[in-house]
Amino acid sequence: MNGSVRIPGSKSISHRTIIAAALANGESLLQGVLFCQDTDYTRKALEELGADMTRRDDDLLVRGNGGRLRENPAGKTIFLGNSGTSMRLLLSVVSLGRGAFILDGSPRLRQRPVGALVKALNDLGAHISFLGEAGFPPVLVEARGLPGGSAEIPGEESSQYLSSLLLAAPYAEKDTEIRVTGRLASRPYVDMTVQVMESFGVRVSRQEYEFFRVKTGGHYQPRTLAIEADVSAAGYFWAGAAITQGSVTTTNVESLSTRQGDIGFLDILEQMGCRVKREPGKVTLQGGALKGLDVDMRAMPDAVPTLAAVALFAEGKTTIRNVAHLRLKESDRLKVVAVEWKRLGGQVEERSDGLIIKGNHPLKGIIVDPHEDHRIAMSLAVIGLKVPGLVITDKACVNKSFPTFWNLWDALGP
Questions:
Q1: 245, 287 Cβ separation under 8 angstroms
Q2: 206-210 — which CB contacts under 8 Å span 24+ positions?
Q3: What is the pLDDT of residue 72?
C-alpha cells in the first residue's frame, strides 16, 4: 500500500463538540465534522431536544438552546441504533430536560451496559429506570432537571460514563463532584472530553483521573471550532503500509498535539519495525520487517483489532493485554478476532482481557464475517492486502464510523 490519504474528522470529538454546541447559547460552527451513522444519531437526538443544526458540506452550523431542552410531557422514544457513545453521552444530557424520554436502540445496544451510569445519575438526583433487563437499555428518563451533587463511577467498564456526567455537569443545579473508583479505562477519551469542554469555555477541576469537579452556571459558549482527524481511522492505513512494507502519508492528522489515545499506535508500529515521520498536519509511515511485542492496550482499545491484523504478519508472538472492556463494544471484539482470525488460519489465543497472536503462519482467503462491527471489517481489510481471496461480508457496516473508508482504501491499493 502506497500513497497519501486525507483522514476525516474524529468521531469521538465530533460527538462531544456537537453536544457542547447544542447546549451552548448561540451559534457555533463546527468544521470538519465526521458525518457517519453514530454521529447522526447524536445529532438527530439533539435536534429532537431543541437544538437547530444545518449541514454545510463537512461543516455543521449549530444553534444551541442554552441547556433549555425541549419539554416532552407525552413521552418520546429516542432511537440510537447501535451507537453506545450516543446512548451513554446523551443519557446525562436528557436528564437535564423536562418530561419523559425513552432511550432505546438496536438488539446489540440492548446488550451494552449502562447500569453504573444510571446509578451515578440517580445519585445526582435524576429519575431513570430500566424498561427491560436491569442495567441495560431501553431506559426511561423522567427528566426534571439534574440537581447535581456528588457521585461515584467505576472506571474499569467504560470511560464514557465519566465523559457523560462531565458534559452535562455545567447545567446541573448544584456543583457536581465525581469520584472514580478503580482504574479508569481509556483515559485519553476523558482528556478529550475535558479539552472539548474547555474549548467551549467550561473549566473542569480534577485530581488526575480520580476526582473531577464542575461548577454549576459556567455554561458552554458558542464557538467556531475545527475538528481534527480521527486517529483511529488513520490507523488502518498505517497498518496497511506496515504489512505491505509500503509508505502511506495520512494528512489532517495532528500527531504532535492530539489528545486521542490511538496516536500511541504509531509508537507500537515503530517498535514492531516501521519508520514513522511526524510533521504538523501529517504522518508518514514506512513499513518494514515486523516483529511481535507485548503491549498494554488499555489506553487505545479501538486500535486492538488493527494491531491484531498486523500481528498476523509479524515474526514471533504479539500479546495484547488489559482490554477486557472490548467485550462490550459493537461486538465482543476479543472473541470475534479469535474466531475469524483462526478461520483464516491464524494462531490466536483468546484470553479474558486480551489476545496472544503468533505471526507468520500461512493464511487462506475465505469469506469472513465482521459481526456487524465496523472496526472488525476495517481490520479485515488490512489482512486482505496480504491474503488473496479474502471476502468481507457486510462491508457497509463501516458506515457506523467511516462511510468513505472503502473509496479511500481502494484508491491506495495494495
A1: yes
A2: 209/155, 209/180, 209/184, 210/179, 210/180
A3: 75
Phi, psi of 167 (to 5 degrees): -60, -35
Q: What angle do CA 265, 298, 235 make, to 5 degrees?
A: 25
Mean per-residue pLDDT of the chain: 94
Q: pLDDT tens digit string along 80-129? A: 999 999 999 999 999 999 999 999 999 999 999 999 999 999 999 999 99
Quote the pLDDT of residue 158: 87
228, 34 Cβ separation under 8 angstroms: no
In whole angstroms, give the CA distance from residue 215 to residue 72.
27
CA 73 to chain centre: 32
Are 174 and 151 in contact by the 8 Å Cβ rule? The answer is no
pTM: 0.91
Q: Is CATH 3.65.10.10 correct for 231-412?
A: yes
How far is the C-alpha of 12 from the C-alpha of 16, rounded, in Å? 7
| pLDDT(174) > 70 | yes
- At position 81, the amino acid (one-letter code) is G
CATH superfamily of the domain spanning 10-226? Enolpyruvate transferase domain (3.65.10.10)
Peptide bond connecting 138 to the previous residue in cis, omega within 30 degrees of 0: yes
Which is the catalytic residue, given 38, 230, 262, 302? 302
Using the 8-state DSSP alphabet, how is residue 185 labeled?
Answer: S
* Rounded CA Rg of the chain: 21
Longest CA pairwise span in the chain (Å): 62
Taking the domains of the chain in order of start, what are their residue ranges? Answer: 10-226, 231-412
What confidence tens digit (pLDDT) does each residue in 4-59 have?
Answer: 999 999 999 999 999 999 999 999 999 999 999 999 999 999 999 999 999 999 99
Q: Which position has the grid cell 431536544? A: 49
Residue 175 bears catalytic tag: no
Which candidate, 346, 313, 352, 306, places its Cα nearest to that of 332? 352
